[in-house]
Amino acid sequence: MYKSLIAIATILLTAATLNTLAESNQGGSGSNGNSNTNSNGQPSGSGTPAMQGSQGIGATQPVQNQNQVKTQNAGEEQQLQVKTQEEQGEENDNKNDLSGIRSSVAQQIQKLLSTGPAAGGIGDQVREWAKAQNQVQTKIQENLANVENKGNAAKFLFGPDYKAIGELKMEMEQNRVRVQQLEQLKLKLQNQADITNVQEMIALINEENTALQERISLEEAQPSIFGWLMKLLVK
C-alpha cells in the first residue's frame, strides 16, 4: 500500500513538471513572436502608421500643387489661344463680308453710269453721282489696304493705323451724305429700272458703312502698348 502511494505521487509530480515545462516553452515562443512590437504594442517598423501617413502626404502634396499649377496654366493658355482664334476668325469674316460688299458696290456703280437720259437731266446727275462715288470707293480701298498691311507686331506696339482709320471714318460720313443725295435723285426718276438700281445702290452703301464700322471697331479693340500715344499724336 505504501509503495502504491509513492508511485502515484511520483506520477503526479512528473506530470506537473512536464506541464510546467510546456507552459514555459509556449511563453518563450510568444515573446519571440512579439519581438517586432514596441512598448505600445505597435509594430516597430520605420514609423507608426500616423507618421508614415504624414510622410506620404508631405511627399505627394508638392507634386499635387505642381500638377494643379500646370493644369491651370494650360487652361489659361488654351483659353487665350481660343480667344485669339475667335478674334482672327471675326476679322477674317469681316474682311470677306467687306470685300464682297465693295465688289457689289463697284458693280452697281457701273449700272448707274449707264443710266439713260431723263427729263430735267436727272440721268446725267445720277451718272455724275456714280463717278464721284467711284472716287470715294478708291479712297476707301487705299485706306483699308493701309490698315490691313500693318503687321501684328507693329499693331501690338503702336496700335492700328489711326490715320487710315480716321480717313475711313470721314469717308463713311461722306457715304451717309451721298446716300441722302441719291435719295433725292431717286424721287425724280421715272424709269423703274433706274429707280431699282438707285435703291440697290443705297442699300449697298449702307451695308458698306456697317461693315466698315465693324472693321474699325475690331482694329481699335486690339490691345497695344503705345497705341494711346499714337492716337493722340494723330489727332
From TrEMBL:
<feature type="region of interest" description="Disordered">
    <location>
        <begin position="25"/>
        <end position="99"/>
    </location>
</feature>
<feature type="compositionally biased region" description="Polar residues">
    <location>
        <begin position="51"/>
        <end position="83"/>
    </location>
</feature>
<feature type="signal peptide">
    <location>
        <begin position="1"/>
        <end position="22"/>
    </location>
</feature>
<protein>
    <recommendedName>
        <fullName>DUF5667 domain-containing protein</fullName>
    </recommendedName>
</protein>
<feature type="compositionally biased region" description="Low complexity">
    <location>
        <begin position="25"/>
        <end position="49"/>
    </location>
</feature>
<feature type="coiled-coil region">
    <location>
        <begin position="165"/>
        <end position="222"/>
    </location>
</feature>
<keyword id="KW-0175">Coiled coil</keyword>
<keyword id="KW-0732">Signal</keyword>
